[in-house]
Structure formats: C-alpha cells, structure tokens
C-alpha cells in the first residue's frame, strides 16, 4: 500500500490532473490580492479605457523626452479611468468569475491558456 506524498494540500492536489478540484470556487490569498487585480488591470486597459490608453501612448510617442511634462493630462485621464474600473465591485465580480472559469478549465484539462503579450 503506497501513498503519494505532495507538497500541496489534499484540496489543492485533487482533480483529474492533480491540479485541484475544477469545481472548487474558493480563492487563495494570492489570487484575491494579486492575480484577480492583475486581470482587472489588463481588462480595464484593453476594453474599458482603451481610448485613454491610446491617447496617452500617442502623446508619449509624439513628445519623446518631454513626455513627463507634456502628457500629464492624458496620464491623469487614463489613471482616473483605470481607478474607477478597479473600484467597481461588479467589474471585480465579473473578473473573479472569469478567473475561476479559466482556473477550472486548467484544472480539468491540465493545459495552460497561452499568455497574451501586448
């Protein structure tokens, strides 16, 4: 009778590939404080504040070395937009659900979703 030992807790080593239970909806501290906020920032930049981000990027490209001084208005507008979405509880819930669905799919299949690089 052999038992496999793992560094992971029994809860996190369960599932078809030993990656955790795909149906588990509990979140670890690192997921709540790091991974979900990262997803929120990426989604807000790409989907919710894309106009402000484009304006800031254009200003930076046009201003070159003087961008710190020249692009304050665009930077402030971009930061305000991102902050508003970051504080939106409904948006956080949507991102949390998206994260849980991706994690569940990974735990079920064992295949990581490719990382999108901008």
The shape is elongated
Distinct helical segment count: 5
End-to-end distance: 50 Å
Per DSSP E runs of 2 or more residues, the count of β-strands stands at 0
Query: Pairing-aware structural class of the strands and helices?
Result: mainly alpha
* Uncertain spans: none
Radius of gyration: 20 Å
Percent of residues in beta strands? under 5%
Approximate helicity band: 55-70%
Mean pLDDT: 83
User: Main beta sheet, described?
Assistant: none
What is the element string, with H for helices and E for strands?
HHHHH
Give descriptors for this structure.
118 residues, mainly alpha, 0% strand, elongated
Structure commentary:
By secondary structure, this protein is an all-alpha fold. It has five helices and no strands. Helix 1 packs across helix 4 and helix 2 packs antiparallel against helix 4. It is elongated. The mean pLDDT is 83.
């Amino acid at each position: 009778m052999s038992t496999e030992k793992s560094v992971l807790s029994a809860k996190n080593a369960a599932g078809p590939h030993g990656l955790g239970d795909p149906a588990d909806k509990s979140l670890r501290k690192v997921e709540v404080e790091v991974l979900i906020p990262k997803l929120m920032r990426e989604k807000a930049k790409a989907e919710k504040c894309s106009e402000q981000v484009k304006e800031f990027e254009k200003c930076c490209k046009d201003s070159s070395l003087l961008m710190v001084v020249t692009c304050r208005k665009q930077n402030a507008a971009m930061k305000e937009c991102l902050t508003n979405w970051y504080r939106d509880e409904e948006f956080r819930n949507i991102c949390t659900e998206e994260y849980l669905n991706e994690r569940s799919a990974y735990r079920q299949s064992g295949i990581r979703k490719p990382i999108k690089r901008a």
